[in-house]
Design a protein that fits this description.
about 350 residues; 9-stranded mixed beta sheet; two-stranded antiparallel sheet; 11 helices; about 30% helix; elongated
Length: about 350
């Protein structure tokens, strides 16, 4: 008999013991990441907050109801109606929600849901209210065996309400929201993440190298990557710099990314104008050895010049790619350095988009 994953989520079952690499069904993923410890934490802090704010009539909440609340919230995010009460209304009743929990119970839980104790001293952590939840989730993400090829990029969680850590990025599909830096594999599976909350994030360990505010994001996320086990990390020009790649190489982690030329000050590469004179498909490579680490800088002209920096691969082997020529009104084959397809193949796990067309 086939089991409805949503009903299983709502049922309050005990956690399923499963290897994260073999998970297939939604309930397995849910149980692996939303652990009993997380549910207990939410139950405790929700009950505590209701007692603090309404001592005469504190909210009675069970672990099963917390799971049901999360399941309903997930379902509502997929099957959308104008407002919460519509799911219980006679006109639009959604049985998978209305038969699990009453509207009044859902509204009460939404009012009191908490992840931390509000009475704890303020430690200037902007994520204080959700920090226990973040720490528990990160622990579960890091417990999954990583793929060999990893990518680091930013994602936006859409949000237009009031928040001191809300960000605006005009280049993103959702321009307003919370910025999250994600370490993911080519499969799209996330292994670590960091929610941006301002300058308070930029804290390094004594043995780590300061690679600038953006580069330090990679430094922090690379802490969960085992050293000297042949892992490769890919990122775009927002993060990349020679200092960052040297730091990773000394940890035994190879890296590749697009790069802004002003961050590679000692490397004399052709200007955009000189590269365009050579025609589409032209490229240039510079190699350097720093502290016994070989770094390759490659510039390639496609629709426009693009620059790469890598301790993993250089321009070789040079292949061919098919491009449309507006002059010939036909497709043509142009030279393509080996670094380009490697970057395009591995950058962009979890829906993170590649910079190269």
């Amino acid at each position: 008999m086939q089991v409805d994953p949503l009903k299983t989520i709502f049922s309050g079952m005990t956690a399923i013991s499963v290897d994260a690499r073999e998970m297939e069904s939604p309930i397995e993923f849910f149980r692996y990441f939303i652990t009993n410890e997380i549910i207990q934490n939410i139950q405790h802090n929700t009950a505590l907050y209701s007692t603090q704010t309404r001592p005469a009539k504190p909210l009675q909440v069970t672990r099963s109801e917390i799971e049901q609340f999360i399941g309903i919230a997930l379902y509502m995010s997929i099957f959308r109606l104008p407002n919460c009460r519509s799911y219980w209304s006679p006109e639009f009743r959604v049985d998978k929600i209305a038969s699990v929990m009453t509207n009044n119970k859902f509204e009460e839980l939404k009012r009191f849901i908490h992840f931390n104790d509000n009475t704890l001293p303020d430690n200037s952590d902007k994520l204080k209210k959700v920090r226990p939840l973040i720490d528990l989730l990160v622990r579960q993400f890091r417990s999954v065996t990583m793929e060999e090829n990893l990518s680091i990029d930013e994602q936006m969680v859409p949000f237009k309400g009031r928040s001191s850590i809300k960000q605006y990025n005009p280049k993103k599909p959702h321009k307003w929201g919370y910025k999250i830096y994600v370490l993911s594999g080519i499969s799209g599976f996330a292994y670590d993440f960091e929610i941006y909350s301002g300058k308070q994030d930029n804290i390094l360990l004594p043995e780590e190298v300061d690679c600038g505010a953006s580069g330090n994001v990679v430094v922090r996320l690379s802490r969960s990557i085992p050293s000297n086990v042949n892992y490769k990390v890919y990122f775009d020009n927002y993060f990349n710099s020679p200092e960052l790649q040297l730091f990773l190489a000394k940890k035994g982690i190879l890296s590749l990314g697009t790069v802004r030329l002003n961050r590679v000050s000692q490397c004399n590469m052709m200007s955009d104008t000189d590269l365009k004179k050579k025609g589409r498909g032209a490229f240039e490579e510079r190699l350097a050895v720093v502290d016994d680490v070989q770094i390759a800088a490659v510039r390639w002209l496609d629709n426009k010049p693009v620059s790469f920096l890598s301790t993993l691969i250089g321009s070789q082997p040079v292949g061919q790619v098919r491009r449309w020529s507006t002059k010939l009104l036909a497709y043509q084959q142009i030279p393509c350095p080996g670094i380009v397809p490697v970057y395009n193949k591995h950058m962009g796990g979890g829906g993170l988009t590649s910079w190269i067309p």
